[in-house]
Amino acid sequence: MADTVAELKPRIDKTLEDLKRELAKVRTGRASTAILDGIRVDQYGTPTPLAGVASINAPEPRLITIKPWDKGVLKDIEKALREANLGINPMNDGEMIRLPFPPLTEERRKDIVKQVKTKAEDHKVAIRNHRRDILEALKAQQKDKKITEDDLKRFTKDVEDKTAAGIKQVDTIYAEKEKEVMKV
C-alpha cells in the first residue's frame, strides 16, 4: 500500500544519480577526471580501474595527467585510453601520460548536447517506467481489496506528483549540462 508508493522516491533518486554519473563522463570543454571513471587497465592480466594503478590529476582546465605507481603499466594505460575512444590522443613521455583537451568546435558542442539530451530522455523514460510499475501494483492491491478506491486515487496523485518532480529534476540537470557544454 503506502510502502509501494514509498518505493518510488528511492527509485527516482537512484535514476537521477545514474544520470549525474553518466553526464559526468560526457566530455565538455574542460578537463574532468570523471571522464576516465569507466576505464579499466589490464594490469598483469587483471582488469583494474585506472584509479587503482595511477594517480589522476587535472592541473589545468584543459589537461589531465595520469602518473602510474608502477611504470611497467604505462603502456597498458596508454592502450586502455586509446581503446576507450575518448576523442583525446594520450601523450606518453615515459613518466606519465598527458591527455590534452582541445577546444571544442561549435558543431562538436551541438553533437555533445544531442547526446546529453538523449541520456536525459532515457532517464525520463526510466522514471515513467517506475511510475507505471507502482501504479500497476496499486491497481492490483485495489482489485484484491487491500486498498479502497479513495486510497487508490490519493496514492495515484502522490505517485504523479513525485514523478513530475523527478522529471523536472532531470530537466534541470540537463539544462545545467547543456549550459556547461555550450560555454565557450
Automatic annotation (TrEMBL):
A GO molecular function annotation here is: ribosomal large subunit binding
This protein's GO CC annotations: cytosol
Q: Which domain of life is it from?
A: Bacteria
Q: Which Pfam families match?
A: RRF
Q: Which residues form the Ribosome recycling factor domain?
A: 19-182
GO BP of this protein: cytoplasmic translational termination
What SUPFAM superfamilies does UniProt report for this protein, alphabetically?
Ribosome recycling factor, RRF
Compartment(s) of residence: Cytoplasm
Keywords, ordered alphabetically: Cytoplasm, Protein biosynthesis
Annotated function: Responsible for the release of ribosomes from messenger RNA at the termination of protein biosynthesis. May increase the efficiency of translation by recycling ribosomes from one round of translation to another.
* HAMAP family named among the record's database cross-references: RRF (MF_00040)
In the record, the note on similarity to other proteins reads: Belongs to the RRF family.
Q: What is this protein called?
A: Ribosome-recycling factor
What is the organism of origin for this protein?
Corallococcus sicarius
